[in-house]
Structures are given as structure tokens and as C-alpha cells.
Amino acid sequence: xxxxxxxxxxxxxxxxxxxxRRPPERWLFSGIYGLVLASAMVxxxxxxxxxxxxxxDALWVxxxxxxxxxxxxxxxxxxxxxxxxxxxxxxxxxxxxxxxPLVAAVLPTVGILLAAVAGWWAEAMAVDAALLFNTxxxxxxxxxxxxxxxxxxxxxxxxxxxxxxIGLMIIIANALIH
Length: 178
Hints:
The chain is 71% helix and 0% strand. By secondary structure, the chain is an all-alpha fold.
């Protein structure tokens, strides 16, 4: 029989009577997508043997997140247009704007790269710090989502570890390529 703390509770029931507000699924999706995007971009923009230039790298990470966010939101608009005839509405604009968590998720990476521009550390250290931060954040989002859904700590940590594996794969790929 599973441990009492590891059982899944019915939806909306928080562990030990604690009230928990569930984050919207889109926020979690966009946040995780943004962290993975930022990790992949920062790893790809750090070529071995070339001169480091963290300023343009930070700009590329941000622009890529903005473009991805707009494209994903617009894909929702197209899908809505295909299923419902009629003029564009405010709800369609909200579909595009609702992708803000993707952009917000890359901001720590942009900040870490800009710290390298300011001379606080070398770009290679900034890339390592961004990859580590994003990997830990992936764990945190995965574990937090599982806890909010009512899972116990062991189950939530397993969910976080699975999300964290994506970040670890990017770190390993970055190390192998360099």
C-alpha cells in the first residue's frame, strides 16, 4: 500500500487541509517551455573556440522567446478561427498575450547573460549558471505542479526529477559538443 503522503488526492483537495490555488495549465506549459528554450538557446549560442559575446546572446534568447510566444499564441488563434467562424475578438488577442509565462521564464537567463556583459563573470560561467538555474527551476516547477495537484512529497520529487532530466540532457549535450 502506498505511503499516506504519497497518495494522490482528489482534484482540488490540498494535503493536510492547506488551501492551494492551482496555477493554470497554460502557465505551467509556457513556463517549462520557456526554461527549456532558454537552456537550449544559451547552450547553442556558446560555441567553443569563438569569442564570447553575451550581450547579443541575451538579445537572441529574448527575441527567440518573444517569437516563440507569439507563434504559439497565434497558433491558438488559428485553431480557434478554424473551429469557430467569425471576426477576430478580444479573446483571440488574449490567447496571444496569455503566452507571457514563456517570455518570463527566459528572463533569468537573460539577466545572467547581462551580468556577464557587466563584467560580473565570464560568459562561460554565465552559461553554466543559466543552465544550472534553469535545470533547478524545471525541478521546482515539476515538483510544485505535482504538490498543487495533491501528490505527496516523494511523488512530487519524482515528477520534478523527470522535468529536471530535460535540463540535464541539455547540459550533457552542451558538454559533449564543447
